[in-house]
Amino acid sequence: MFTREQLQGIMLAMAKPEVSVYRDDRQSLGYAIRLGVHFRANEDFLLAVHRSLLQHEVTSKVKDVESKTRPRPILSVGGKLNCYKLVQLLPKLPAYNDWEIFNQVLDICIEDKHTTRKGFDKILELKGLL
Question: Which CATH superfamily is domain 4-127 in?
Fold first, then answer.
């Protein structure tokens, strides 16, 4: 198992926080937001990270194969609550980086402002799409 400090280093070095905006006609705005953090490495290492995250009450999934076109293992953390717990493990970081943008979008989603036009526009602005 990894210590908290080791997990912080692993997250800063390897994890890729992602904010996806996708078309969803079931939503009032016609779009939805998906938050996730992905780790790509060998399977044994990802299983060790998975067990360490469970100690911090962060649920994750390890897949042997990410997709047909990318047949490598992946560990994924998804959902607002799990992403929030994962971000709480990180130390304070410099102002502009992927984690800062991810954290700002996560805050908007936790407050359920992503379902409003203003909140959705703010997310698009943070992603650089507006």
Answer: Homing endonucleases (3.10.28.10)
